[in-house]
């Protein structure tokens, strides 16, 4: 093995600028070479990005800031004025070269404040319904027709969530959603605007399902969301999406983190659990099987299996659940789970023989990720279905009862009504189990919350009446 000294990172790539009223949304993709390996697993080696703006034709920067993610919103600029934008990456060694482009803010005809108010009211209404502070969509929306229509079907699901929380002995107290990095952008060629905002929704959940030992947890999420509204005198919500999906450049691994067409033919052999979205209850879909993943993993570890630190998996996941560090993946749920298993649980990477592994390894018997961007990695590291197939190949058990779930287990879910194991949408890490509830740390979106909870417009169960779960205790053969 040859030692390579760390270096400064190369320049960020694919800078993309979205003009808004009095500001710009600036996004970029990571450098091709971060120059440094972060052995905590928290980052891809990049500790931050410096973003500098200078009015074109001048030399003094008017903005110079450091951010940890792959985008930033700059406000307080003059409309119809062109700015030169420079972005550079830095690591433990130093700051790399800049990438530069230009951007020109564009005004919204009626001004941005009315649209921002509607987004704040909608986010507040969603939180009030989910926490039980409002009993219905009508109660939460009040007399505002824009918010009432914006809640739509999602509002009914939030009511279901609140009702389910009551039956599972959960009580929420919410701080209320806080908006930051807000920018209203006019959409050329249509009578719409898009409000970009980062929404932080935090609170406390008291779980009294074990009356003798109630549990208090800090829960919540941070999401970057793009709301599109009409520009009529009474605006209406048209759509809601991830900011990354509509305004940021596409990283090389963006399509590798959910189901991959080349990988979802065989599926997995073990039957899933089912979560009923109406009640929030977990029920076994195969009553003949009720194996405990914890007991199975203990037996395996004592013979031909690597010892895995399951508490370490959960601890790493809780520590970095709210992190906005960019790891080269746009939707990084499976990458997040893999990093928790590797850096927190002590599981080793399994690489194919040879000096240089494939950049995208389709063999589910391999499990690895290196420190370059775009990474050389196995699909089992970054794709939910392949990750499930890998842990199944290694011999993990799938829990078919709540008693079989444990801290450090990896949860894979399908929310499109397919229990065949050929399609898996998402992955997360169990960080707490009580007699009625299971709490998950996850990315995309970044949050810690109970399994059946829905925060904002994201949900593990918003796409259909039933969600199927494969709850696994990862093991690894020696």
Give the structure's gist in a few sentences.
This protein is of the alpha+beta class. The chain has nine helices and 24 strands.
Question: What does this molecule look like?
Answer:
With 478 residues, the chain is of the alpha+beta class. The chain has 3 domains: 91 residues, Immunoglobulins (Immunoglobulin-like); 135 residues, Nuclear Transport Factor 2, Chain: A, CATH 3.10.450; 219 residues, no CATH class. The strands form 5 sheets. Strands 8, 9, 10, 11, 12, 13, 14, 17, 18, 19, 20, 21 and 24 form a 13-stranded antiparallel sheet that branches. Strands 4-3-6-7 form a 4-stranded antiparallel sheet, with no helix packed on it. A 3-stranded antiparallel sheet has the order 1-2-5, with no helix packed on it. A hairpin with a 7-residue loop joins strand 10 and strand 11. Helix 1 packs parallel to helix 3 and helix 6 packs across helix 7. The protein starts with 12 loop residues before the first strand and ends in a 6-residue tail after the last strand. About 8% of the residues have low confidence.
Helix content: 10-25%
Label the overall shape: globular
Strand content: 25-35%
Unreliable spans are 256-265, 284-302, 454-464
| Average pLDDT taken over every residue | 79
Number of strands: 24
> How many structurally independent domains?
3
The main pleated sheet reads as: 13 strands, antiparallel
Instruction: Provide the structure class.
Output: alpha+beta
Distance between the termini: 22 Å
So what's the oligomer here?
single chain
Query: Rounded to an integer, what's the Rg over CA atoms?
Result: 23 Å
Individual helix count = 9
């Amino acid at each position: 093995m040859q030692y390579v000294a760390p270096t400064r990172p190369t320049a960020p790539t694919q800078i993309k600028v979205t003009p808004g009223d009095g500001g710009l949304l600036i996004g970029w993709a990571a450098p091709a070479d971060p120059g440094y390996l972060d052995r905590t697993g928290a980052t891809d080696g990049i500790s931050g990005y410096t973003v500098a703006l200078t009015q074109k034709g001048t030399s003094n920067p008017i903005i110079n800031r450091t951010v940890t993610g792959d985008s930033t919103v700059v406000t307080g600029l003059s409309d119809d004025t062109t700015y030169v934008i420079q972005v550079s990456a830095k690591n433990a060694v130093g700051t790399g070269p800049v990438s530069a482009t230009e951007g020109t803010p564009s005004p919204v005809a009626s001004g941005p404040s009315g649209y921002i108010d509607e987004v704040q009211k909608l986010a507040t209404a969603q939180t009030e319904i989910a926490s039980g502070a409002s009993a219905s969509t009508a109660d939460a929306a009040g007399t505002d027709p824009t918010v009432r229509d914006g809640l739509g079907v999602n509002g009914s699901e939030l009511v279901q969530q609140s009702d389910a929380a009551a039956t599972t002995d959960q009580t929420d107290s919410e701080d209320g959603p806080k908006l930051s990095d807000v920018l209203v952008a006019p959409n050329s060629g249509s009578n719409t605007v898009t409000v970009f905002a980062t929404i932080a929704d935090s609170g406390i959940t008291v779980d009294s399902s074990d009356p003798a030992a109630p549990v208090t947890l800090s829960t919540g999420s941070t999401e970057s969301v793009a709301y599109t509204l009409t520009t009529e005198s009474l605006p209406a919500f048209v759509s809601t999406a991830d900011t990354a999906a509509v305004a940021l450049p596409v990283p090389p691994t963006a399509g590798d983190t959910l189901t991959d067409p080349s990988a979802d033919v065989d599926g997995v052999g073990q039957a899933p659990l089912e979560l009923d979205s109406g009640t929030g209850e977990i029920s076994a879909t195969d009553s003949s099987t009720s194996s405990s993943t914890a007991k199975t993993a203990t037996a395996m570890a004592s013979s031909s299996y690597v010892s895995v630190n399951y508490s370490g998996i959960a601890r790493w996941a809780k520590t970095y659940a709210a992190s906005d560090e960019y790891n080269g993946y746009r939707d990084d749920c499976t990458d997040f789970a893999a990093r928790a298993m590797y850096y927190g649980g002590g599981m080793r990477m399994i690489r194919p023989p040879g000096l240089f592994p494939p950049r995208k390894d389709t063999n589910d018997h391999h499990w690895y990720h290196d420190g370059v961007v775009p990474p050389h990695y196995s699909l089992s590291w970054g794709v939910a279905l392949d990750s499930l197939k890998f842990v199944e190949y290694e011999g993990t058990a799938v829990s078919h009862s709540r008693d079989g779930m444990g801290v450090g287990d990896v949860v894979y879910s399908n929310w499109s009504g397919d229990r065949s194991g050929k399609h898996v949408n998402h992955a997360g890490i169990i960080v707490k189990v009580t007699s009625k509830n299971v709490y998950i740390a996850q990315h995309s979106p970044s949050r810690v919350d109970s399994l059946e909870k829905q925060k904002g417009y994201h949900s593990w169960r918003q796409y259909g009446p039933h969600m199927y779960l494969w709850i696994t205790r990862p093991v690894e053969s020696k």
